[in-house]
Design goal:
EC 2.4.1.-, 7-stranded mixed β-sheet, membrane, transmembrane helix, 11 helices, 10-stranded mixed β-sheet, alpha+beta, signal, single chain
Length: 495
């Protein structure tokens, strides 16, 4: 018997949602919320305690969805994530590291970490070990009242070493009932086997720019090069970009984390884009949160982590280096000969592949016009200077905090970075213009260009992969071409 619309509605209305399913759903949306632990232990841990009652998840102070707040007597903390760190080179031993922003420079306020372990009715409380600044004052915005990025360390006490805390709260007074409670993330493979390469992409801010086709080409190229997974953070994006990201998420090739800006910074679509485009130093400071969150969520899972924008690719130069694995096998060996140890990072020089206005260049006839990188094979003859605008393969066993271009702090000593020779690899950067700080030398870059078809060693596979994905996504015009893969399929919809 067919159900009427009213019957279906009533059936839906009175369906009891399974608690475990609800917990899993909330946890997937807010990874930092320890809802599973709270749901399991709420009756025990919320009884009257001698000190520091476990905070109810309904009494936590959230800010802009994903952030949790501590309002201290000297500054406000916006906390994004907490991570269990037992890396061997860490001088402080096992620790929980909390990533967030504080509206103070050189915060003076004393705080405490309430560490909640499974089965414990009260927390173990330790004094905060340090506030690690993920910025340099010479870069600007070194002012009180502006949210600054920090990594906060809480040492695990000796009696609990070997146990992973379920959650952590940051408080000003030891016995305060906290207004924040972060699930401690420990994403370690059961077999302890790492994959090769993860790529982290800062918060995507493409509300008005439909870069979906270029994004497909970029994701497919990184897959060919050996990226095991790409971790995106999403601020505001065009609907077609969302469509692409959802497609690759279903294939488990990318992971997308929604992102907001903390505190009083704007999150309204459009206004946020305007804010980030005009307040570039604020933008750079905010970017350090997704970069470091990506590092700490994946430090036990991958040999190398690269921070890339969607307009740049680390390109192996030699024919025998088909993948990043091939490249890094040789590069790491070169580095070992110099210092008999691995480096925290291995940096690749930047070179510009300029976009020609309105495609005022000859089209490469055997490449579809929508293949942006394959079509653009003219680059600046000269690279940007060593250590300027580079990108790195980071060794997650060695780096403590990351910036867009280099590690800021490292475990076990200084952050030495091994320079990969331009004979071995280059950072191919596809832009219409240079970054603002290179305006003086940009004209020289544009006037002196050479043809560089290194990318064409992947041409056939990249065209095939990209075309197949675009066809699956329905981005082509209807065509009578046999099998849907003929030249007639090279005409894209105007979206």
């Amino acid at each position: 018997m067919q159900l009427t619309g009213l019957t279906l509605f009533l059936s839906y209305l009175f369906t009891v949602i399974d608690d475990e399913q609800l917990v899993r759903d909330v946890e997937s949306r807010i990874p930092s919320l320890p809802i599973a632990y709270w749901s399991k232990h709420k009756n025990a841990v919320q009884k009257k305690a001698a000190c520091a009652k476990y905070p109810s998840i309904f009494e936590l102070e959230f800010n802009n969805i994903y952030w949790q707040t501590l309002r201290s007597s000297n500054g406000t903390f916006q906390l994004f994530g907490a991570y269990y760190d037992i890396r061997k080179r860490s001088r402080i031993g096992p620790a929980v590291r909390i990533l967030g922003m504080i509206d103070r420079i050189e915060p003076k306020v004393k705080t405490f970490c309430q560490l909640w372990f499974d089965g414990q009715k009260e927390p173990f409380i330790v004094k905060t070990f340090e506030y690690k600044y993920i910025w340099f004052n010479k870069w600007g915005n070194y002012k009180q009242g502006i949210y600054q990025p920090y990594l906060i360390a809480c040492q695990i006490p000796k009696p609990f070493r070997g146990l992973v805390p379920a959650s952590v709260s940051l408080v000003e007074k030891q016995c305060d009932t906290a207004t924040n409670n972060l699930r401690v993330l420990y994403n370690r493979p059961l077999d302890d086997k790492k994959k090769g390469f993860a790529v982290c992409v800062k918060g995507l801010d493409f509300l008005y720019d439909d870069l979906s086709v270029r994004l497909v080409e970029w994701i497919e190229l990184l897959g060919i090069l050996g990226a095991d997974k790409i971790f995106f953070y999403e601020l505001q994006v065009h609907p077609n970009i969302s469509k692409v990201l959802r497609y690759y998420e279903e294939q488990d090739r990318v992971h997308v984390t929604p992102l907001t800006l903390p505190g009083g910074q704007p999150n309204v679509p459009g206004f946020q884009h305007l804010f980030l485009s005009k307040k570039t130093t604020h933008k750079r400071q905010n970017e350090l949160i997704p970069y470091n969150d990506c590092l700490y969520k994946n430090m036990y899972k991958y040999d190398f982590i690269a921070l890339l924008d969607i307009d740049e690719v680390i390109m192996p130069k030699l024919d025998e280096d088909r993948t990043w694995h091939d490249l890094m096998e040789r590069v790491v060996e070169k580095g070992m000969k110099l210092k008999n140890d691995t480096y925290p990072s291995y940096n690749v020089r930047n070179v510009y592949f300029f976009d020609q206005d309105q495609h005022e260049h000859d089209w490469n006839k055997d490449v579809p016009k929508y293949m942006h990188m394959l079509q653009h094979v003219q680059r600046a003859k000269n690279y940007t200077k060593p250590n300027q605008y580079v990108k790195c393969f980071h060794n997650p066993e060695r780096v403590l905090t990351l910036h867009n271009h280099f590690p800021i702090a490292c475990l076990g000593g200084a952050c030495h970075s091994f320079p990969i020779s331009t004979d071995d690899a280059q950072l191919q950067h596809y832009r219409a213009d240079c970054v603002r700080t290179l305006k003086k030398s940009c004209e020289e870059f544009k006037e002196n260009q050479v043809r560089d078809t290194t990318i064409w060693k992947y041409k056939d596979e990249l065209v095939q992969r990209t075309r197949r994905t675009l066809d699956t996504l329905g981005f082509f015009r209807p065509s009578s071409a046999v099998g849907g893969m003929g030249r007639g399929r090279d005409s894209l919809y105007k979206r």
